Amino acid sequence: MSKPTDPTVLIERREAVTTLTLNRPDKLNSFTTAMHAELRAALETAAADGSRCLLLTGAGRGFCAGQDLSDRVVPPGGQPPDLGESLDTRYNPLIRLIRGLEMPVVCAVNGIAAGAGANLALACDIVIAAKSAAFAQSFCKVGLIPDSGGTWTLPHLVGRARATALMMLGDKVGADQAEAWGMIWKVVEDEALMETARGLAHHLASQPTRGLALVKRALQASAVNSLDQQLDLERDFQRQAGRSADYQEGVRAFMDKRAPRFQGF
Question: Which residues in the chain land under pLDDT 50?
Answer without folding.
Answer: none
